[in-house]
Amino acid sequence: MIELGRSAAWLPEVCVVTDVCRENKSTVTLELENSSSEPHSQPLAGQFHMLYAFGVGEIPVSFSRIESDKVAHTVREVGAVSKAIAALKPGASLGVRGPFGNSWSVSAKEHKHIVLIAGGLGLAPLRPLIERLWQESRKYEQILLLIGSRDPQSMLFTDDVTRWRTRIEVRRSVDSCQFRNRGDDWNESVGFVHTLLDRESELSKDTAAFICGPEIMMRHCAERLVELGVNSRQISLSLERNMKCGIGLCGHCQFGPDFLCKQGPIGNYHNLRPRLRIREF
Amino acid sequence: MKRALSSCVAEGAEGLRRIFDQVKNQSRCVYGYGLSHPAANALELCELFGFEDLPRGVVSNYAPGHASLEKEREDQTCSSFFRHTPGATSPKSIQLPPRRVIWKANRTKEDHQKFQIALASAEQQKSNTLQPNPEILPVAFFGIRSCDLRAMHTLQNVFDVQGQGVPKSAAEMPLLITASCVEPGHNCFCTSFGYGPECQDSDLNITECFVEEEVQHNKGSESALEKTKCEQGKTARKQIFVVDAHTTRGRPIVEALSKDQHLRHASQHETALLTATLKRSQQRLKEFIAARVPNEENRSKVWAGADIAKQLRDQARSKNWETIAESCLSCGNCTMVCPTCFCTTVEDSIDLEAQRSERTQVWDSCFTAGHSYVHGGTVHKSTPSRYRQWMMHKLSSWHDQFGESGCVGCGRCTTWCPVGIDFLASAYQMTKGVE
Ligand SMILES: Cc1cc2nc3c(=O)[nH]c(=O)nc-3n(C[C@H](O)[C@H](O)[C@H](O)COP(=O)(O)OP(=O)(O)OC[C@H]3O[C@@H](n4cnc5c(N)ncnc54)[C@H](O)[C@@H]3O)c2cc1C
Ligand code: SF4
Ligand code: SF4
């Protein structure tokens, strides 16, 4: 009765960074070899890894690309660990644990209409899902992707967006655009991302929605979708809480009854709504 | 109360010493409540190297926000062994050490960008667990209480449900020798969860009883009896330890000691004494609980059940959290002394040459700002929101997560709260009047 957790779960595997790509001033994408050879341990869209930077610390980071031979993580430099990870060069070691958490679930049998809403870095965890929908776009009647960002300079994955536009509808908006009057080439919307839904008067009942971004933005978007007729059970959000272990033992990621590293990070709005309305919960 | 008819009796301190030695001989090490050093005024769960390490003649005096120990009496022949209740630390400190290095990382000499990671000790590497390799002898706990046992199961259940428990053979399980609480503490409320003050699911339970009357002489064992009685005015006081074995591991201990005449069957008189001793303890617990939970209905049924889980969930947005937590300092003492709180954080340290790094797992508390920190701020900013996390986790979400209560009724959080917030009374306040 007195033995504790297996260490394997706490012990990172050391991986090699194969490629590094700067997305914008504060965001970097790192590529790693996909070491999971067995199909059942393949990461799923929406899951995350715990990434360890030598001597600095370990943080949860979602998959922003999942391919058979490689995976990518997109990291925004906000503090000590994310800065250390973003500073890595190709060939450097990175400690990796996971994949952890649940995944975005979508089925062409149940849903014909898909809405994806990304706020800021929230586009990164959605990208593997978008890629899959893009490949299978023929199975759906409509796929709508809304992307919000602070300003044009911080818009992520612009090359991908151009490609996605060939098969799915992408609307983008920036919170503000200082250079608008000075010949900047931003000719898309300005305003918070949920205002991109204003063009819709009603959404089909079989719509599935996937939202990732700051909590307040996700709440606004989800409420708007409910008003437009989307079933709250079909709205998925990805939540963020402090995480130290990824295996349900450190206690930090609790959100009421859920450990977000296991029962989350993704949940449906119907279940989450009562808790999201409680202040400081 | 239902009880086995096979209770045995050990007489006096000598009798208890025999039991202890028997347990010690068949265990890798023995843990129990003791004084960390002779002058200490606090009990803690520590290794008991010998019988002398048991806190003899020590009575605990606990109230909300108050813990002190008193010397019972100068009398060495009859002073008690188990009239105290548990100390601030609990078996949790063995199950989940407050601080432990989990792994070490080393930079590669040739290429500064590269590093390797390995478990902290060779032993850990060998067993692939974070604990030393289990040896053939199990560890033993001696003199822990029914709430301690309940808490050990509750904490183990957390590891198991999360898929991180290490399967163990029966022989590797710790040997559990419990003691009945004959003098319950003011903050205790185990019986409102349906167990205590004696323990019926350990390997062996010991109840210390005192006979305050003329000693009945028995020719065969006159000299032994002489040793264990002490004169107090005209009456004599005799100390006996009633032993009940509950398992196939407890019974051989009783058998071995009986064979050597260190244990004998309890007489009718002694069985009656045992019943009276436990009844008195139960009565006291009832009074202590009634002082905090005036409503009989609430007192008897809700605490362990799912009712309270729902009642508290319905109160999540209540303003009353502010009232309850008004004096709370957010110090986290309650979570540190809680025998089931399992939150931990990690610390990374690095040597001066930046070549070697260690990751250490340390206890954490939901009363810290760091516990719910995400970039941009702390989710649980205010103290009432932290108090709500603590109480709702113990009494509500624990049921959802692990199918049982996260609170075991030991009362430590109340005893060691510097401002004396009474957990039981607060929980009652939060739920009263709610159907
Ligand atoms: C499921 C999940 C997926 C995530 N995916 C990404 C991603 O794809 N890209 C990305 O850039 N960021 C992602 N984050 C956020 C990222 O983990 C934080 O930005 C990061 O922990 C900040 O660490 P820091 O040391 O650089 O910053 P600091 O602000 O100095 O943080 C100190 C410590 O607090 C904790 N912490 C701080 N912010 C967060 C947070 N938001 N979530 C959890 N723990 C936090 C960490 O333990 C961190 O080490 C994700 C978070 C979660 C929970
Ligand atoms: S969240 Fe708080 S109450 Fe729950 S186990 Fe962690 S420290 Fe204890
Ligand atoms: S309830 Fe008491 S022990 Fe717990 S954090 Fe508040 S002041 Fe500290």
Describe the structure.
The complex is a heterodimer of chains A (281) and B (435). Chain A is built from five helices and 16 strands. In chain A, strands 4-3-7-1-2-6-5 form a seven-stranded antiparallel beta sheet. In chain A, strands 11-10-9-8-12-13-16 form a seven-stranded mixed beta sheet, with helices on both faces. Chain A has a two-stranded antiparallel ribbon with strand order 14-15. In chain A, 49% of the residues are buried. By secondary structure, chain A is α/β, with parallel strands linked by helices. Chain A has helices spanning 80-86, 123-135, 158-164, 215-227, 269-276; strands spanning 13-24, 27-33, 48-53, 57-62, 65-66, 70-76, 93-100, 113-119, 142-149, 169-174, 189-190, 207-212, 235-238, 254-255, 258-259, 266-268. Chain A folds into two domains: 6-100, Elongation Factor Tu (Ef-tu), domain 3 (Beta Barrel), CATH 2.40.30; 113-276, Rossmann fold, CATH 3.40.50. Helix content of chain A is 17%, strand content 31%. With 435 residues, chain B is of the alpha+beta class. Chain B has one domain. In chain B, 32% of the residues lie in helices and 22% in strands. Chain B has helices spanning 12-25, 92-95, 122-127, 146-161, 222-228, 250-259, 268-292, 296-301, 306-314, 320-324, 333-337, 383-402, 412-415, 423-431; strands at residues 8-11, 30-35, 43-47, 58-63, 66-71, 99-107, 115-119, 140-144, 175-179, 204-212, 229-232, 235-245, 264-265, 344-350, 356-363, 373-374, 377-378. In chain B, a hairpin with a 7-residue loop joins β6 (99-107) and β7. In chain B, α9 runs antiparallel to α12 (383-402). The longest helix of chain B has 25 residues, at 268-292. The chains are: A alpha/beta (281), B alpha+beta (435). At the A-B interface, loops of A face β6, β7, α4, β14 and β15 of B. The complex binds flavin-adenine dinucleotide and iron/sulfur cluster (SF4) (2 copies). The site of one iron/sulfur cluster has 12 residues of chain B, from α11.
